[in-house]
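for the recovery benchmark. tokens below, seq after
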């Protein structure tokens, strides 16, 4: 099952003007699901269990230091599709 997700999570119980993209999913994803980092969210592509495990590990890491966390998650499932993040970026760049 190939899924493409974009997610962001950050603590809401910290007094910060700007919240960095933390925790870094690259630290939690391994080599099979390298993340695509954007200005407000992370993108991951892979099998359901792999990408959801990355989201869970990032959440658990942030939970160590926070009692309130805000998360958004968008997901697109497409059977048999691969390299969708790279393909979508390339398609947009070609059209520009």
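predicted aa per position
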């Amino acid at each position: 099952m190939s899924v493409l997700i974009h997610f962001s999570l950050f603590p809401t119980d910290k007094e910060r003007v700007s919240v960095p993209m933390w925790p870094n999913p690259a630290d939690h994803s391994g080599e099979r699901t390298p993340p695509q980092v954007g200005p407000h969210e992370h993108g991951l592509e892979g099998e359901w269990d792999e990408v959801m495990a990355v989201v869970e590990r990032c959440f658990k890491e942030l939970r160590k230091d926070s009692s309130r966390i805000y998360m958004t998650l968008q997901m697109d499932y497409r059977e048999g599709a691969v390299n969708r993040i790279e393909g979508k970026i390339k398609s947009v760049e070609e059209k520009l």
